[in-house]
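Treating backbone geometry as a discrete language has practical consequences that deserve illustration. Part of our work consisted of pairing the sequence of a single chain with a tokenised description of its backbone. We regard such an encoding as a compact summary of how the chain folds. The amino acid sequence and the backbone structure tokens for this protein are reproduced below.
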Amino acid sequence: MARIFFNGQAMVGGPFHAKVADALIGPARTAPGHRFFSIDDVCPGLLRDPAVDTSIEGELYEIGLEHLRDVILPGEPRELELGVIELEDGSACLSMLLARGEVERGVHREITHHGGWRAYLATLGRTA
């Protein structure tokens, strides 16, 4: 089993939540030091950046590595990669991060100031 932080479509109310619903631990936040990007307003991506003091809201799940390998990762966009982040409580967990080289492409909207995916979607008039 592995703990993973989701901050987009897999959260409660999102279109992919059913794939992880039984593994929900509860709400969580990243530790400070994360930027947040929208990928075509379809999904978000985290980027670790120790120069910023922002934390991002999401949810913590505990899932089997086989489920991660066989169900979760095949559905993730190429713009994201699996990595390890720090949560607000200081513990480490897995999360989907903006893939290397993506920020340099300059095509993803930074949404860090919204603090989370739901808050950003609200500015678009969407809930999920």
Remarks:
- The mean pLDDT is 96.
- Helices lie at 65-72, 102-105, 117-123.
